[in-house]
Each structure stands twice: as structure tokens, then as C-alpha cells.
Amino acid sequence: MSVNGPLRIPIGCKSIDKALDGGLLIGSINLMYGEPETGKTTMAIQCAVNCARRGYKTLFIDCDSTFSSKRLAQIASKNLEKIAESIFLMRPENFKEQTLVMEKLPNYLTEKFGLAVVDTITSFYRAEVAESPKKTFELNRELNRQLALLAQIAKTHKIAVLLTSQVRSVLNETYESIEPVATRVLKFWAEVIIAMRPTEKPQIIKAILEKAPNAAQYITWFLRIGEGGLYECLHL
Ligand SMILES: Nc1ncnc2c1ncn2[C@@H]1O[C@H](COP(=O)(O)OP(=O)(O)OP(=O)(O)O)[C@@H](O)[C@H]1O
Ligand SMILES: [Mg+2]
């Protein structure tokens, strides 16, 4: 862990941060995966805001083009200008550009960075597999190489890497064949894994801590997605 860097980056939900000994793990890959609209991007923005509040910058690689200044303003609420100055946005337009961004990451990350987010790391991968199924093997290898690069960068630059990935509970033929591979690759590299699941109540999601250095078993929380981000709630 860095002497000068942050020790952890809080997610902003007290009980989850407690279970994680303070938040996202520095020097490691942290993964949040789940169904659409389960608050993954919201949580990633929340982490970037908390990182900025501790005086560290975030590189936010927005592969979905869903990062919005409006959402950032709602989540940050105070000191927006200062927080926004600490978040650097990159928007690759295809899987190849995503690879280039990963390869060049060491050039972008100066010592005051605490976090790099890739939201959503599997979007371009998934689109390309759907378009050219024959290239699946090659694309899997490339995804794995990106993960290896990110794991190395997390260690050498002493930052937390946060990845989001979308899964669907109702699978069509394409997802059925590709999704388990992508999820397996991500889970292999991640040292912290949080699954986000929808519930029957709109705006309420279930967060399941599947893996963390000090968590011996799965821990579950219910969270509400609101204007200011994700809040813990005691009941469904
Ligand atoms: N200002 C707000 N107040 C309350 N809820 C909001 C607000 N802005 C967005 N949401 C809700 O947040 C949810 C989407 O969250 P988010 O974009 O973080 O999900 P996601 O898991 O990243 O989705 P995807 O898989 O599509 O990328 C939606 O249900 C949306 O209604
Ligand atoms: Mg999202």
C-alpha cells in the first residue's frame, strides 16, 4: 500500500465500507457486476467523488458514454467544482480504442491518482463478439490481456481499479454463450467482487459482497438508488 496514497476509497455505503475495511482495495481490481440499471455507474461515480474528497484524482474510462455532469452534481452535492476538477473522463469508441487506453494508462496516471474506473469494461467486447462470433477466442484473449494490464497498473501505481460489468438474468443465445466467459475472466482477476441484483421494488437493489480479503462468506445489503446516489435501507 502506498505511503502517500489513500489507504482505501470508500464506496459511500457505511456497512459495505465496513465490510471492506474502509472501501475499495488499493493495488487491486474491484469488480461490480449486475443487471442493467442496478446502480453500477452511480456507485462508480460515488467512488470517484469520495476519492476526490480525499484529495486524489480519478481516471474515469466511460465506455458507455453514460457519465453525466448532472448526475455528478447530484451525487457530489457540495464542492462540485473542486470534485469535478479531480475526475478525468476518457471515452474510447470501440474495443480497440479501449485497449489503447489501457496500454497508455501509465502515461496518464500521475502520482496523485487514487482510482481508475472502467465503466462498462465488457460493453465493446460484447458488441464485437455479437458482430463477429468467429473472433470470440481472439476477443477473450484481448479482454484477459486488458485485465492483466489493469492488475499490474493497480499494483505499480498504487491505485484502486474499479470495473463494472453488465449481466442479464434472461439470456438470449449470444449472451448465453459469451457472458459466462467474460464474467469468469473478470472474476478471476478481481480481489473484491460485488454483485448488484434488482429486486421486485423499483429503485431498490440488492448488493452482495461475493469476495473481499476479510470476508469469509457472502454478505447482502439492500440499497435504494436516489437523487444523491445509493443509500442503505434496512428492509425491502
Ligand atoms: N436522480 C436520480 N434519482 C433517482 N434515481 C436515479 C436518478 N438518476 C438515475 N437514477 C436511477 O438509477 C438507475 C440507473 O443507475 P445506473 O445508471 O447507475 O445503473 P447501471 O447499473 O450503471 O445501469 P447499466 O447497466 O445500464 O449501465 C435507474 O434506475 C435510474 O432510474
Ligand atoms: Mg452503467
Would you spell out the secondary-structure blueprint of this structure?
Elements: E1 8-9, H1 14-19, E2 24-25, E3 29-34, H2 40-53, E4 57-62, H3 69-76, H4 80-85, E5 87-90, H5 95-108, E6 113-119, H6 123-131, H7 136-156, E7 160-166, H8 173-189, E8 192-198, E9 204-211, E10 219-226, E11 229-233
The protein binds adenosine-5'-triphosphate and magnesium ion.
Adenosine-5'-triphosphate binds at residues 36-42, 64, 66, 71, 74, 120, 166, 225-227.
Notable characteristics:
40% helix; Rossmann fold; binds adenosine-5'-triphosphate; globular; alpha/beta; binds magnesium ion; 11 strands
How much β-strand is present in the residues?
25-35%
How many H/I helical runs? 8
* C-alpha end-to-end distance: 37 Å
CATH superfamily, by name, is P-loop containing nucleotide triphosphate hydrolases
Query: What would CATH call the architecture?
Result: 3-Layer(aba) Sandwich
Give the total of beta strands. Answer: 11
CATH topology: Rossmann fold
Average residue pLDDT: 91
Order of helices and strands: EHEEHEHHEHEHHEHEEEE
Output the structural class.
Answer: alpha/beta
CATH C-level class = Alpha Beta
Bound molecules: adenosine-5'-triphosphate, magnesium ion
